[in-house]
Design goal:
Layout lengths: L2 H21 L4 H14 L3 H22 L8 H27 L1 H5 L3 H5 L5 H13 L1 H17 L4 H29 L4 H21 L7 H9 L1 H13 L5 H4 L4 H18 L16 H20 L10 E3 L3 E5 L3 E5 L3 E10 L8 E9 L9 H4 L4 E4 L7 E9 L4 E11 L6 E3 L2 E2 L3 E6 L10 H27 L4
Parallel strand pairs: 1-9, 3-11
Antiparallel strand pairs: 2-4, 4-7, 5-6, 5-8, 8-10, 8-11
Helix pairs in contact: 2-7, 3-4, 3-8, 3-17, 4-7, 4-8, 4-9, 4-10, 4-12, 7-9, 8-9, 9-10, 9-12, 9-14, 12-14
Length: 480
């Protein structure tokens, strides 16, 4: 097929689109959105990306069920890890489709015909944006059977679907809009894909790099600015740590602000400037501006690595404490995967009102040759706070321990009164140990995972084949 024939066919497609928009009684943006959805889902890239998504999700689910160490995760943790992967891949899919929205039209030489249609530039961007978002509901629907399987009848399933839908509806439109903005400033798909992938990796890796410095002021601020780890922290506290929405709603501030800024930038600033060539607006992003932004990012990363909240005490003077701790159980025999709830009572046995109290829980392995225990894997909440206790006043705190590995372990709690100043320390009170004897046991049946892990990609593959056949038939009949 010669270049002249290809160009003629592209012009015919553009003329068909213009005639369809002119003669239709429905809103023009809806006609364009319908065409976008048809291009994406009838033999288009959306089906292939969703197929890859289902394969990756099936592999992860099968590994969670068959790997011995991973299968010992609690249902809450397995559901959270599945949701985390699903949202991350969905972010990437939205970013990829968004990055192709404008630069792809320029590469295919169809943007000129699109701009000649009786549709405003903002409506063109809106149809592209909504078409790219259509993959998220499908991805969430595919994820639900995997979550149902991994939840093992746990009540976390209903909460996971609700909060995942909320978080995904905030994050995915933001990154899809970001991909459209990058595509707007690029003349070629290669450049748009490369820049979009780089931005996504920066957001993703910054959350990993800044993890150790989250307790520092700079680390907390940069972590708050990154919507991805903030959103996952929100999910983790709700699903794994069993906290309420009222306690963690502030973690959604960063994703919501980021989404409003990016989507607002797309529709109120970028979309009216849509043109055939990206060079007309590329001067706004000068070489000097790129250098300044790059240096700022490097400076923030270096500052975050150096940030730390640990301050050495110059002198240590101990203050006396009168706190007594008792726990509801002293020993327990369980199997891996089970949850051990227990209560503790903190009593102020002194004659004066106590300062604010911090209560922390720790777990140790009683076997010398055993692995070191990571308490974060065993308990969704390791620290609780008490405002103050009057003389002879008591308060009860509830705790939960998840048996992750088999063996003999000791759980203990310590109460730490808050020091008056940086030059003083306080007397720590410890509880009696809770002896846990954990035997091996795996609840999840790996054979029940394989049909879903293999069945979903097979069904999607058949859907792609049918869509491809329908599209080929339309082309053979003279359709676009």
């Amino acid at each position: 097929m010669t270049d002249a024939i290809v160009h003629l066919r592209k012009n015919e497609n553009g003329n068909d689109r213009q005639m369809e928009l002119s003669s239709s009684r429905v809103p023009a943006w809806w006609v364009m959105l319908s065409r976008e959805l048809a291009d994406l889902w009838i033999g288009g890239k959306a089906l292939y990306l969703i197929l890859a998504f289902s394969i990756l999700l099936g592999i992860e689910t099968f590994v969670l069920a068959t790997n011995f160490e991973l299968s010992l995760f609690t249902p809450e943790e397995m559901v959270f890890e599945t949701l985390k992967s699903a949202i991350q891949v969905s972010l990437l899919i939205g970013l990829i489709i968004g990055a192709d929205s404008i630069s792809g039209e320029r590469d295919r030489a169809t943007l000129e015909g699109l701009l000649l249609t009786p549709v405003s530039r903002r409506q063109i961007i809106l149809s592209k944006f909504l078409g790219a978002l259509s993959t998220w509901p499908v991805a969430l629907a595919i994820t639900i059977p995997y979550m149902l399987l991994l939840s093992q009848g746990n009540a976390v399933f209903g909460s996971a679907v609700l909060w995942a839908a909320l978080l995904g509806t905030i994050l995915i439109p933001a990154f899809t809009a970001l991909g459209v903005i990058v595509s707007f400033w690029c003349n070629s798909n290669k450049t748009s894909f490369f820049v979009s992938l780089g931005i996504f990796l920066v957001f993703l890796l910054m959350g990993q790099v800044l993890g150790p410095s989250r307790t520092g002021i700079v680390g907390q601020f940069l972590q708050w600015l990154n919507p991805i780890p903030a959103g996952f922290d929100f999910l983790s506290k709700l699903l794994v740590s069993n906290q309420t929405f009222g306690e963690v709603w502030n973690l959604l501030e960063s994703p919501v602000v980021f989404a409003i800024l990016v989507v607002g930038l797309l529709f109120f600033y970028v979309s009216p400037l849509l043109s055939i060539e990206a060079r007309k607006v590329s001067k706004l992003w000068s070489r000097t501006s790129r250098q300044r932004v790059g240096l700022s990012v490097i400076f923030c990363l270096m500052l975050s690595v150096k940030a730390t909240s640990a301050m050495a005490l110059h002198t240590v003077q101990s203050e006396g404490g009168d706190l007594q701790i008792t726990i509801s159980i002293e020993n327990k025999e369980v199997k891996t995967g089970e949850t051990i709830p227990f209560d503790m009572i903190v009593t102020n046995t002194g004659a004066e009102q106590s300062p604010p109290i911090i209560v922390a829980m720790n777990i140790i392995n009683l076997a010398k040759e055993g692995d070191v225990v990571d308490p974060e894997d065993w308990s969704p909440e390791r620290t609780q706070y008490i405002d103050s206790l009057a003389p002879n006043e008591s308060t009860t705190l509830s705790w939960q321990v998840n048996a992750v590995l088999d063996g003999n372990y000791m759980v203990y709690l310590v109460a730490i009164p808050t020091p008056d100043s940086a030059e003083t320390s306080t007397q720590i009170s410890a509880s009696q140990g809770l002896h846990l004897t954990v035997a091996k046991f795996t609840k999840l049946n790996p054979s029940g995972v394989l049909p879903i892990a293999m069945g979903v990609p097979i069904v999607l593959g058949l859907a792609i084949f049918i869509a491809f056949r329908i599209r080929r038939r339309q082309i053979d009949l003279g359709g676009s």
